[in-house]
Amino acid sequence: MAPWQSSFIKTYTLTDSYLSDAEPIVQWVKAEYTNMMGLPFCLGLNGAQGSGKSTLAAYLAAALGNDGLSVAVVSLDDFYLSPQERQMLAKNQHPLLKTRGVPGTHSILQAVDVVESFKAQRQFILPRFDKSQDKPLQSQFWQKVETPPDILIFEGWCIGLKPEPNVRLQSPVNSLEAKHDSSGTYRQYVNTCLAQDYQQLFSLLDRLIYLDVHTFERVYQWRLQQERQLKMRLGEGMNDHEVAEFIKYFERLTEWGLTSLPKQSDLTIFVNEAHRFVIE
């Protein structure tokens, strides 16, 4: 184990098995980057909440960096609209859009601009979002990338998703939709957003990795664990009930991803109950 790997394992509180689990993924990314023949390589990484996508993105950046490649990482979460902007959406479109999460609650054209700038090898700025405060960090804390990297990893819970077929929108998927979106206006708006500017962003991805968690039931336990760690680190965050309600906003498209993404991703990685990666 190299010193940087030992440090990574300690920082992220992982077991040594993470290194052997992640190594085939590192090698796959290196091979795909080589196939790009020196062109800027934008790698999409999709995984449900708590699946480990942010940790994997950080590990890939560290491993590839150790091999001499320059890598930047950004999350779709960093492009969330401010509470004020979401409040306006809630007023003009549907009250559920007050809560961050679904397509329509991101500054998606800003994300498109970032990836297009990367592809053109221009300098760009990566925004950052403070989840504990539910608002973007002030711009002086954003990351200015003056020398464009070899690889940009773009991770997010709905990265690469196609819009849902209309037949799937007919019935509510959980109690949140049944109670607050009986007419289907909210889910139709979200799907329309996903079909438009989000596809422009996703078309810029050169490859897509999908972390397949098998079932949405795991998301609650993993997201709960994630939130508890956040509260321990920052002293602020959601309680267990708030987490249970929050993930309902993500259920519809997470379930759609479980159905659709294995067929369209370039690499599907199964995440088992112990959070181990399995490539079949």
CATH architecture annotation name: 3-Layer(aba) Sandwich
CATH class: Alpha Beta
Secondary-structure class: alpha/beta
Under CATH, the homologous superfamily reads P-loop containing nucleotide triphosphate hydrolases
The number of domains: 1
Q: How large is the count of helical segments? A: 11
Which topology does CATH recognise? Rossmann fold
Rg estimate, integer Å:
18 Å
Order of helices and strands: HHEHEHHEEEEEHHHEHHHEE
Question: First CA to last CA: what distance?
Answer: 25 Å
- Ranges where pLDDT stays below 50 over 5 or more residues in a row are none
Average pLDDT metric:
93
What's the number of extended β-strand segments? 10
Beta-strand portion reads: 5-15%
Largest sheet: 6 strands, mixed
Strand order of the largest sheet: 2-7-1-8-9-10
- From the spread of the alpha carbons, the general shape counts as globular
Helix content: 40-55%
Which key features would you list for this structure?
single chain, 280 residues, alpha/beta, Rossmann fold, six-stranded mixed beta sheet, two-stranded antiparallel sheet, 11 helices, 10 strands
In brief, what are we looking at here?
The chain has helices at residues 3-11, 17-35, 53-66, 83-92, 108-119, 175-180, 185-195, 197-202, 217-234, 240-246, 248-264, and strands spanning 41-47, 71-75, 124-126, 129-130, 135-136, 143-145, 151-156, 207-212, 267-271, 277-278.
